[in-house]
Design goal:
eight-stranded mixed beta sheet, two-stranded parallel sheet, about 15% strand, alpha/beta, TIM Barrel, 11 helices
Length: about 300
């Protein structure tokens, strides 16, 4: 069967950075045996972020126990957590001189706590060697409140959990997740005083009304920061792109979110949850509860 190539619109084309630290970042990650979501999820911003000397660390291995139809991360049976991983992540954050360190993970439904303890250990390890602001991007821990609170107790500067898409598309896009469960997680974290963040994709077949409804639900859950980006199919086996959303529509979503009371909204074709995370954090213009950080 012949593969039909998708023609991207002009606004989804970007130049590679002229000066690049990409080689340095790749070498460091390889030396420390660390995974990044940038590589595993085939992020289109990888050349830019690696070129600036930044990366989003992905802990708990590179194999996910869920089978979301939008994601390029490997799926299957993962290995046990690595007890030395927190120290290696911290070492990488220090060597890259990060101002803002983002830590995410694969979903580990095979672990009793979903990997919450490993998240907490990573946050603590980074604190020991770096003044960087720390942002965690966690799975839903199957709704386990104790697991969520364990990560929150480590006091990251930002607690991020993505809802990914509108409620109607969950069975099709991420069948093992539940929007209400994710909203309850965000509300629980918000109740601890931490800054909460979430993100979702557009171009999967959602309507404008559904986007507005999702923004309202996130705000009602106490979400402080939201990111909205264009879905880009990472491989032929994943859900096809339904629509390319024009930049002006992203601008409208940004203004809509700000009117609802979000303190920061990053909305654009190339926006991803951790893309330019330091700059988004800086727009809050205040010292956060979890940690005093240079922003």
């Amino acid at each position: 069967m012949m593969c039909v190539r998708t023609e991207f619109p002009a606004w989804l084309k970007k130049r590679l950075p002229a000066e690049s630290r990409s080689g340095e970042v790749r070498e460091l990650l390889a030396d420390l045996h660390l995974n990044t979501v940038c590589q595993s999820a085939r992020c289109p911003n990888l050349p830019e972020c690696f070129g600036k000397g930044t990366a989003t660390f992905m802990i708990l291995g590179d194999v996910c126990t869920r089978r979301c139809r939008f994601c390029a991360v490997k799926q299957g049976e993962p290995l046990p957590p690595d007890p030395d991983e927190p120290g290696r992540v911290a070492a990488a954050a220090a060597k890259l001189r990060l101002r803002h360190c983002v830590v995410t993970s694969v979903t580990r439904d095979d672990l009793p706590d979903g990997g919450a303890e490993q998240f907490a250990r990573v946050v603590s390890a980074i604190r020991e060697v770096s003044k960087a602001a720390v942002e965690v991007l966690t799975p839903d821990f199957r709704g386990d409140r104790e697991a969520v609170l364990r990560v929150a107790a480590a006091r990251p500067d930002i607690y991020n959990h993505n809802v990914e898409t509108v409620e109607r598309l969950y069975p099709e896009v991420r069948p093992e997740a539940d929007l209400q469960r994710s909203l309850e997680l965000l509300a629980l974290v918000a109740s601890t005083g931490l800054v909460t963040k979430s993100g979702f994709m557009v171009g999967l077949g959602e309507t404008r009304e559904e986007v507005t409804e999702l923004l309202q639900k996130l705000r009602s859950a106490g979400c402080t920061i939201v990111t909205i980006g264009q879905y880009l199919r990472p491989s032929p086996g994943r859900k096809p792109i339904v629509r390319f959303v024009p930049p002006e529509e992203f601008d409208e979503y940004r203004l809509e979110g700000l009117r609802m009371g979000f303190r920061a909204v990053a909305s654009g074709p190339f926006v991803r949850s951790s893309y330019n995370a330091a700059e988004v954090f800086a727009t809050l213009g205040t010292t956060q509860v979890g940690h005093v950080a240079e922003v």
